[in-house]
Amino acid sequence: MTTDTTSYAPGKAATPEERKAWSSTSAGRVVTARKITRAEELRLILADEIVSGQLAPGAPLDESELARRFRVSRTPVREALRQLVASGLVDARAHRGAIVAHPDPERLAGMFEAMAELEALCAGMAAERMTVSERHALQSLHDQLRAISYLGDPQRFHEVTEAFHNAIYAGARNAYLAELALATRKRVQPFRRAQFRNIGRLAKSHAEHNRVVLAVMQGDRAAASAGMRAHIDTVRREYATYAGKA
Amino acid sequence: MTTDTTSYAPGKAATPEERKAWSSTSAGRVVTARKITRAEELRLILADEIVSGQLAPGAPLDESELARRFRVSRTPVREALRQLVASGLVDARAHRGAIVAHPDPERLAGMFEAMAELEALCAGMAAERMTVSERHALQSLHDQLRAISYLGDPQRFHEVTEAFHNAIYAGARNAYLAELALATRKRVQPFRRAQFRNIGRLAKSHAEHNRVVLAVMQGDRAAASAGMRAHIDTVRREYATYAGKA
DNA sequence: TTGGCACTCGTTGCATGCAATTCGCCATTG
DNA sequence: CAATGGCGAATTGCATGCAACGAGTGCCAA
Fold this sequence. Notes:
The structure is a homodimer.
Chain A: H1 16-20, H2 38-52, E1 60-61, H3 63-70, H4 74-87, E2 90-93, E3 97-100, H5 105-129, H6 132-151, H7 154-171, H8 175-188, H9 199-218, H10 221-242
Antiparallel strand pairs in A: 1-3, 2-3
Helix pairs in contact in A: 2-4, 3-4, 5-7, 5-8, 5-9, 5-10, 6-7, 6-9, 9-10
The first copy, chain A, binds a DNA duplex through helix 4.
């Protein structure tokens, strides 16, 4: 416990100014979401830190420590952790604390396989259902990726890749399926960090996307699915090569 | 609030005997899970009541009321609700309470479509990966279903159907994918209650399963997928026919 | 020296009180 | 008469204190 410095009066735990402090760590991504609860804020921040790799798989999530860090009581921290447990990003056992989820290799392989199929499914549906303007928007993102792969900016490439996949989710016209795919993507993300340091991977990734984009533009469901499945399968293999320590 | 009858001393809110009372409502399914926390208990109970239809979509979930009902404080109730929100069975908005999830028709259609594809995927994978004994076990469940469909016991038919689908999930050798499929199944379940009152549906369901079982026995992935997709699609159409009020 | 055991400490689980927000109701006004 | 503004009640959100559980440590006995 060790209530050390702060005064901590009830309902006045931290001024808004104080509370801004914590988001300074996450590189300019300050989301000034004012209309949501503290627990929801914490959930979003912690999820982001897990997905972005700031909190590595296996890292302990101490309630009191997080409460101090975010200048709130343990209650909203606990609620945020419970939701993260339910979403699969965090593992917890009663009286034994919570850690960032760290699936064993077999489970991780299953997540990759499921991701491949979900993405393939979305791509196939998108090939059939996207509007003309959506197809053009997808093509535009794809072109951007080519340009970025030449420049060799992994961070930017990653961001636009996310947009690319999100565009396909949206094109599938199934919000629920999109949520499943996105959630799976996020849960796998902490284990593919290393890939984005590999510049050579960018061009290959773009080439794989090319098959998908072509099929989507032509409305060829089977080809779009196959292309996306192959792409994610490459991602999986790439991970398997890089990761000896998983 | 109205602290009416019980004394309610801290840490001694209810004796074990008192706490047994609530589970008597759910028809003999008393799970004497002693080693888990109260919040976890509540989560399981509420999820079961939602899936089983005791709590209908749209029903309000008042924290204080649930706390009284289960003889606990609001804290574990809140944690259970948060987890149910994260799992999609409950919707909640800050300061406005929680209700049993009630997706609009479009979203529900998406859930049915996703379920069809997930089940199809599992069936296809199971056709390739099941052991011989697993295939025989599946066949056995299928035979049981035929017998039950003759007897016309919808409740029992439902239970064995669940076991049938779970056997296919297990045969797919992908725990993560199985979780997705099962979660989706549970989220859709509250909207297909009516179907199990329709005795005629039982025989048709069994006939649809037949295609899947045959394909699985022969290791024919494509046929197993197609069969399962067609089955779930029938389920969806059946729902669409029954439900004017969704 | 080693195995078992009780004790202690740290962390999590739960209860409770207060603060904050929302919504319904009623009065006031155009 | 309708619309709007503010007040009150009810409900949720958060802080805090205490209880319970687990893990580590040191002691005792074999």
